[in-house]
Amino acid sequence: MSIGSFETVDLRSDTVTRPGPGMRAAMAGAEVGDDLFGEDPTVRALEDRLAGLFGFSGALFTPSGVMANQIALQLLVGPGEELVCDAEAHILAHEEASPARYGGIQTRTVAAERGVVTAALLAGVVRRGNPYTLGTRAVEVEQTHTRAGGTVHPLDTLRAVRELTSGLGLSVHMDGARIWNAMAATGTSARAYGRTADSMSVCLSKGLGAPVGSVLLLPAESLPRAGKLRHGLGGGMRQSGILAAAGLYALDHHVERIAEDHANAALLAAGLRDAGFTVRPPETNIVLIEVPGADEVVARAAKEGVLVTAPGAETVRLVTHLDAGRQACRRALGVLTAVMTDVVGGARDTAASGRP
Ligand SMILES: *Cc1c(COP(=O)(O)O)cnc(C)c1O
């Protein structure tokens, strides 16, 4: 896509990547079978590989991260039972109230700073049940935390959460859609993260750049029920090895390079900070800028071929990924600096003149 003489730089999300020739070739050549009969060897290979990587005994390929999360939550928390999570969690903000709608799950929230749920916060919220009090069944954490700007739960924090919850007999689900970014940022191993949760969803179509899919990691004994829940949610697939092949290709070719996305996010953040804007220091591949008139910034930048989003009236968000290289990010930096300087200047002039 191009506007005028420029290539469009799309920093709206890391979901916008398109499969390249190598990934497409892997998909075209994938060996397949009917996965509902458990006969797709490529799906099996993907599930086995991720289970091994994160140290789980079972794995289930799902069409989306939302579905992986919802299956996991329904496995851990029954209808009329309680889940505790951060108030800005993806499962609450971006999953169409599915925990309530499909799981009958009551959620109670903590206001975690930067989205990082700690044992200390949880200790004040989780409840033991008794005949007249609804007890907490499970806790959910998000790694990295999307709405907080790709923030990382440190391993020690997750271990402390695990220790607290184990002591109370509570389960932990980790929404690890961007766990790959956390691993790249910290060097923490997949296994170390895996040991801190009872189940974990990992996404193939964000930083890894596959077109479709997530994988739910869980104990093998939960697989039959997980498979039934997936089928009931409309996620039973047939020759889905075509899609799993893209995931396997991404695991071979796109994990190491995530560090480049982080370097590009740092470049954008530093450039905008040097230009005088308030930027949250990015921990991974998401940059949040506090700027008045965010919607106007989005519209004006789009006209210059730089696509970004405004998650709030005074917040602009940039997400770096596989299809936005260093050159593209440099161009985005130039456009955004000019557009934001103009929009902020306009707002100041309006305020100074007293015009509405
Ligand atoms: C993207 C995302 C999901 C959902 O994944 P989909 O494949 O879009 O359904 C879940 N959790 C987090 C934190 C995400 O970023």
From TrEMBL:
Q: Which UniProt keywords apply?
A: Pyridoxal phosphate
Instruction: Point out the gene that encodes the protein.
Output: ybjU
Q: Does the keyword Protein biosynthesis apply?
A: no
Q: Which Gene3D superfamilies match?
A: Aspartate Aminotransferase, domain 1, Type I PLP-dependent aspartate aminotransferase-like (Major domain)
Q: What family is this protein classified in?
A: Belongs to the threonine aldolase family.
Q: What SUPFAM superfamilies does the database record attribute to this sequence? A: PLP-dependent transferases (SSF53383)
Report domain Aromatic amino acid beta-eliminating lyase/threonine aldolase positions: 10-291
Please report the organism this UniProt entry assigns to the protein. Answer: Streptomyces spororaveus
Region Disordered, residue ranges: 1-23
Cross-referenced Pfam families = Beta_elim_lyase
- Please identify the protein, giving its name as recorded: Threonine aldolase
Its domain of life? Answer: Bacteria
Cofactor(s) in the UniProt record? pyridoxal 5'-phosphate
